[in-house]
Amino acid sequence: MIAPNVSDPLRENGGGIIEINAAPGFRMHLSPSEGIGRNVAEHVVDMLFPPGKPSRIPIFAITGTNGKTTTTRLIAHVLRGSGLTVGFTTTDGTYIKNNQITAGDNTGPVSAQLVLKDPSVQVAVLETARGGIIRSGLGYDYCDIAVVTNVAADHLGLKDINTLEDLARVKAVVPRSVSRKGFAVLNAEDEYVYKMRKLVNGQVVYFAMDEDNENIRRNARRGGISCVYENGFITLLKGKWKVRVEKAINIPLTYGGRADFMIQNVLAATLACFVHGVSLEDIRVSLTTFTPSTAQTPGRMNFIEIKDFTLLIDFAHNPAGLLGLRDFIGKLQYTSKTGILSGVGDRRDEDLREMGRIAGEMFDRLIIRRGDHLRGRSEESIFELLQSGVKESGKDPAVEIIKETEESVVHALNTAKTGELVVILADSVQEDLAIINKYRDQLAAV
Question: What is the pLDDT of residues 225-277, one digit of tens each?
């Protein structure tokens, strides 16, 4: 420092720092030319790394077929609400606090290391997808909390992953990485996920929609911890004891308790935060303040009111996800329902047909578009498979093919009727949101 008087605050006397030595030399203290050597380095290291203090930050790793991104974001929201600086990765990007530092699908080891290298981050919440695991592993040696939401048909036929057993084996890498003092949070109602308990070195806890599920009951008899949906409540079980955390209808993410697959995400996130030591009060407040909006959960069940009809944008991109969405919108009262559907080129023929069949059951009108991810297929073959699936549904929705993304969305919005629900099955979430925002801006200008 240089200052007229180092005993006064620098802001007051005009002084300043002219150098910060990132690598101070200890040699002169350890082995002086004259006098007694003093171990200065030991005191510096003890100050930087006090004995007994943790040498690493907690890592939450979330995997599964559906629900990963929402569960990741909800866990990050709860931890942030408890006062921690959170870094998290999702299919939308990598975030430190609420700031997106990189955009795109960031669910692999490179993104995980980006978060772990940031010195401001106090806890890491990492969405971990199949592709990253197969290509490069996890990006860390072990985690403190692993969450597995479910295992369902998606990306089968790629990278030698041909069956659900193959897919489950890849997903199981995450709970296998749990430390001995950590927890694996597993879906007790999914047979592939439940089997992963045998691979876990740490403790295993479970979540389920049905408190009478035999796996949950068995865990309770052993005095284990679970989280279940019980009489309309998100409820923690510890042995025979119950603690009701919050009523589902008070949690915006569940849409009044009607979205079962969102309740599953809430159960998983609640249990993960509870076993990590977050207080029930912080969990409760966070669950009731986390909203399914384009800001907090982009492309995950976002409702937008436009003129006299409603738009819903969701990232359901496989049969299991579409079934969950079908069950949810079946509970909603709208005069008619329109869906905008696109196929992903690296899905099997039977998966694309199944997507078409489910969509045919859901909607009165279907608009099929090309999408951004042909991945080696021709658009004509995707259209053909989706249309054949629609015919297998036994319904007779009106089907239009509008190849271009923006043209298909604008057409659906321009032709929507009063009281109609328009559902965009998002292929590229940010692109679809940009089209919708542009459309709404033009309406506002008029």
Answer: 999 999 999 999 998 899 999 999 999 999 888 888 899 999 999 999 999 99
Query: Would the pLDDT of 373 be above 70?
Result: no
In words, the CATH class of domain 59-289 is alpha beta
Q: Which two tokens stand for residue 10?
A: 């620098």
Examine domains 59-289 and 302-445 and report if their fold is the same: no
- For the domain spanning 302-445, the CATH number is 3.90.190.20
Per domain, the residue ranges of the chain are: 59-289, 302-445
CB 400 within 8 A of CB 366: yes
Contact 373, 345 (CB under 8 A): yes
**Amino acid code (one letter) for 373:** H
Q: pLDDT-derived band of residue 446, with 50, 70 and 90 as boundaries?
A: low
Please give the Cα distance from 103 to 373 (Å, whole number): 17
Q: What is the pTM of this model?
A: 0.80
